Here is the input.
Amino acid sequence: MTSLFRIGIFEFVFEEKNIEMTKLSVNINKIATIRNARGGNVPDVKLAAINCEKFGAQGITVHPRPDGRHIKYQDVYDIRPIITTEFNIEGYPSKEFIELVLRVKPTQVTLVPDPPEALTSNAGWDTVANKDFLKKIICDFKDAGIRTSIFVDTKPQNIKGAVYTETDRIELYTEPYATNFPKNKEKAVADFVKAAKLANELGLGINAGHDLNLDNLKYFVTNVPNVAEVSIGHALISDALYMGLETTIKKYLKELKIK
Here is the structure.
C-alpha cells in the first residue's frame, strides 16, 4: 500500500509496511560500566554480546561516549566482528564518532543530541533547526550502506522535519511514556500513537527506546503501530542481575510477541 504526503511544494510517495514483530536490540553499555569499575575485562562485553544473541536478541546496541565511562571506542571495534545479528551504534555525531561509524560500518547508526557531559539521553533532536547538519551526516552514512535513525520526541514538527534529513528511521524517545505509564497508561501512550501514525504516513521506519521495561513494554508495542525495533539496556541488564541474562532476554522477547 502506498501513501502520498505533501510538504509545501514537495510530494513524497512511500510504501507502507506492516511490522509483524518488533525486534529486540540489547544495549550492553551497563556491562561495560561494571567492567570499568574495576578495570580488566570482567565482565567481558564481547561475551555478553555473544550470549545476548545466543539467547535470542535480534540486535546489539552500544553507545560510546567521549569520556569512555562505559563502552569504549576500542570495544566497538572488538565487538563488530562477532555480531551475527544487527549492530546498532548510538551517539552524538562528533567528528570522532562519525569516523568510528564509517570505519566499523554497523547495520544501523542512531544519532542522538547528547552533549558530552550528559548522564544519559534526555531529549530528541530539533530536526527543523538541525536539518542541514543532520542531512549531511546521514547522507554520508547512507552512502556507506549504513541504515540511519535519529532520536526524536513526539512533536509533529520534529517528525516531519526528519523527512528532510533523509533518515531511514526515527527512534522515539520513550522516557515520558515510561514516567507517566504508572499514572495513566492510556494518556502516556497517546502522543506516541499519534507520532507513529504520522511517521508511518511519511514512510519513516520507527524504533523506540529509553526506560522501556517488562512492565511497560508490551503495552507500548501493542498500541504504537509498526515499531520495528526497541533498544533496551538499563532495565534489561538490571533484570538480568536477578533472573539471569538468558531468562531475562526470553521474558523481553515474550513481551514483544503480540501477534
